[in-house]
Design goal:
Length: 749
């Protein structure tokens, strides 16, 4: 939760793409680029997953360029078409014929038309002519001949709907598959047309079953779907492919179906299926909100595409098709001749035969694999956007750049795999572009914000604190840069003064350059220890290093870290002295003073020169304690408050002192080990020393002498014990002082 609070601005920036994607999904903000991207994704996925195999059940009889060259220009006489139909059914015994051609006007090429014209001339009164006219009329009525060929056969004629401004129509419509009343107040956004072009009455009467061959053309001019039902006036009419499918499966009735899981009012409920009902059997064909379905193209179009067998109409008429080749086949009669303008732009080709689009749709209906964008597509997209958007908005600001890349890539992969699974497994075409674009944009904005805004904050902090604070602390500070500044404040902290002993003698004995190199090497290693323990370097003062813990990054264990750093500094100094011994350089000593207390920390100094430092009585006491390290012969002197704020360290009390400028006496301590699993001799030494101090402060000199003798045997060379032996020797001759508190006063700094 704290991370979210710290990064709320970055989270807000990351949510911007989500908001735009949601507005696009609900239709408030139409982003054409996302729609175009969805189309590209659909087309690419369709081409990648096409079976590219031939459906042997369906054959296309093609009025191709070869047929036009052999039979003649289009339109052909209806007698020729009658001959074609008779050959398909009688000689080749096909199962069903769908006609992707409309016969909206009478055949004006028939011989009967010429006779009628003669009948209106002066020959019309001759009895012989009238008798001949009566004899030839049945054979010369090509529409009648064609109607006779159609009658009684499983044939589905084609027709089309249009939006003529004047509403001019021609021909006769088939019976609708259902009326508006079947919707029962629900919605079906099927395309509504104002006019139609259908077959003349004699042909419609001979073959009453017909289907429209309209298609949907998307804004980019590509045909991707067909309306399985179209709306005209108060009725709904089926497509050519659906009509043929119904004829094949026994002419079930069509009724619209609605999602049973919706809680919306009827007026907002949409059709999600067309049910084919026959007796107690029901087959559901999924449709989108427009009553349409996407065309599941099997492969590239035309005879070379390999999806369907093409047979030239001229070869059928001229008996060049082997007997049995078309037996029991589902046949679609259409054209690929360029001059007849039935080529369409599709995802799999820019000159795709219109008749083959119906063949693909019929093939899908036969296989029960219809692609559709369901009516709940918007709800699906909203859920996907919200879930993935929130994951990115909350996750990206909290992660490193590498992990942010991994998270974003994971979200992209999940979106792609889930979308592909629903497509391949259930035929559902669901929007993906909005979620993909949102993910990529959210990642880009997040990384840009991190680089240009937070990196700038990091650079600013590094400029402010880089010379004082370890880089890892700067990394922590940049997570919430607004919480850090140079502004002065009071805070409980721990300060450490580390002084190099014997520096004056070394400076006199060494060349300046050599001295500089030595100091640089020593201070660099001491600084590394301080930074490794999260300390902030305050300043270098000649041969002294001043550091503090607890600012600018607050730390509850600042005293523990300072003491740990001081113990590690002693180890580093021992290593340096070993190196100096081998190099013939002088040995160095270290005195360290540590104090914990309330200090003022901030940017201090003049208009000319300022620095980030600490001031206050607690800081001054730390400096005094460093000076006392020489008095007591130890390397580290710490105040009692510092000692109380540490754990796991063995301490030895040095004294109770009253330094210059302080009325209050304080106990001072020195760490013996940072390992509580120490030897029993060290534990015994600390216990005996504690007993000695008790006798010493009680002015019981004889008992103090005995206790000091016992502890000295454990560490006979310890300077501290010799110091107290001299004190006891000099103080035993003084009279008892009831006001003495056992403290040692120091009047010098």
């Amino acid at each position: 939760m704290n991370g979210i609070k710290r990064h709320w601005q970055r989270i807000a920036v990351t949510l911007i793409p989500l908001i735009f994607a949601l507005l696009h999904a609900v239709g408030v903000l139409q982003l054409s680029v996302l729609q175009r991207l969805d189309d590209i994704i659909y087309d690419t996925r369709l081409r990648a997953t096409m079976p590219k195999s031939m459906d042997e059940r369906i054959v296309i009889v093609d009025i191709d360029e070869k047929s036009l060259a052999s039979v003649g220009r289009w339109p052909w006489g209806r007698n020729k078409l009658a001959d074609l139909v008779n050959k398909l059914f009688t000689e080749h015994k096909i199962a069903i014929l769908g006609v992707d051609v409309v016969f909206a006007e009478p055949d004006d090429s028939s011989g009967l038309q010429h006779l009628k014209e003669l009948a209106n001339s002066e020959l019309s009164d001759q009895p012989v002519f009238l008798a001949k006219l009566q004899e030839l009329s049945p054979r010369l009525d090509y529409d009648g001949v064609f109607a006779s060929a159609l009658a009684g056969k499983p044939i589905v004629l084609g027709y089309f709907f249009t939006n003529d401004p004047q509403g001019r129509s021609s021909g006769v419509l088939p019976f609708p598959v259902f009326l508006e009343e079947a919707l029962a107040g629900r919605t079906l956004e099927a395309p509504e047309w104002t006019a139609y072009g259908s077959n003349i009455s004699s042909l419609a009467a001979a073959a009453p079953m017909a289907g429209h061959f309209n298609s949907f053309t998307d804004p980019d001019g590509v045909v991707r779907s067909v309306p399985l039902v179209a709306h005209y006036k108060n009725a709904y009419f089926e497509s050519l492919s659906l009509a043929m499918f119904r004829a094949i499966v026994g002419m079930p009735r069509i009724t619209p179906s609605y999602s049973k899981e919706t809680f919306l009012p009827k007026a907002f409920q949409g059709v999600d299926k067309m049910l084919l009902v026959q007796g107690d059997k029901t087959l559901g064909i999924p449709v989108d909100r427009r009553g349409g379905a996407l065309i599941p193209f099997r492969g590239a179009g035309n005879a070379q595409g390999g999806s369907f067998q093409y047979v030239s109409a001229a070869d059928v008429l001229e008996n060049r098709v082997a007997t049995g080749k078309l037996k029991d086949k589902i046949v679609l009669l259409g054209t690929t001749a360029l001059g007849l303008f039935d080529m369409r732009v599709t995802p799999v080709g820019e000159a795709y035969p219109g008749v083959e689009t119906h063949a693909n749709m019929l093939s899908a209906l036969l296989d029960g694999h219809v692609l559709v964008k369901p009516d709940y597509a918007m709800g699906y997209e909203l859920v996907v956007l919200v879930v993935s958007g929130l994951v990115l908005a909350i996750g990206l600001p909290l992660l490193s750049a590498l992990r942010a890349v991994i998270l974003s890539t994971g979200v992209l992969v999940c979106l792609l795999l889930m979308n592909l699974w629903l497509y391949l497994g259930y035929g559902l075409v669901l929007p993906l572009a909005g979620a993909l674009a949102m993910t990529v944009t959210a990642f880009a904005l997040n990384m840009s914000y991190g680089y240009f805004v937070e990196s700038r904050s990091k650079r600013d902090l590094a400029n402010l604190f880089g010379t004082y604070v370890p880089p890892e602390l700067v990394d922590e500070m940049v997570q919430d840069p607004d919480s850090y500044s140079m502004k002065a404040m009071n805070r409980e902290m721990t300060v450490m003064f580390c002084d190099m002993r014997g520096f004056t003698n070394m400076s006199e004995a060494m060349e300046p350059l050599q001295l500089q190199q030595m100091l640089t090497g020593v201070f660099s290693r001491l600084t590394s220890v301080i930074r490794a323990n999260r300390g902030t370097i305050d300043k270098y003062m000649g041969d002294c290093v001043m550091a503090f813990w607890g600012a600018p990054v607050e730390s509850e264990d600042h005293a523990q870290l300072a003491v740990k750093a001081s113990i590690e500094i002693l180890q580093v100094v021992r290593e340096i002295n070993q190196e100096h011994h081998l190099a013939g350089l002088p040995q160095i000593g270290i005195g360290i003073g540590i104090n914990t207390g309330s200090m003022c920390v901030g940017d201090m100094g003049s208009d000319i020169r300022r620095s980030y430092t600490v001031i206050g009585d607690a800081v001054n006491l730390g400096s005094r304690l460093e000076s006392l390290s020489k008095v007591y012969g130890v390397d580290i002197v710490a105040s009692e408050i510092t000692k109380k704020n540490t754990t796991g360290i063995i301490w030895q009390e040095l004294d109770k002192v009253r330094v210059k400028g302080k009325e209050q006496a304080v106990k001072i301590w020195s760490p013996l080990s940072n390992d509580v699993q120490v030897s029993s001799s060290l534990s015994d030494e600390v216990k005996l020393w504690t007993q000695f101090l008790k006798m010493y402060r009680s002015q019981l000199w004889d008992q103090a002498d005995v206790a000091l003798l016992n502890v000295s045997r454990l560490s006979p060379n310890k300077f501290l014990y010799r110091l107290y032996a001299e004190r006891v020797a000099s103080m035993r001759y003084l009279p008892y002082d009831s006001e003495w508190d056992g403290a040692t006063n120091f009047e010098t700094k």
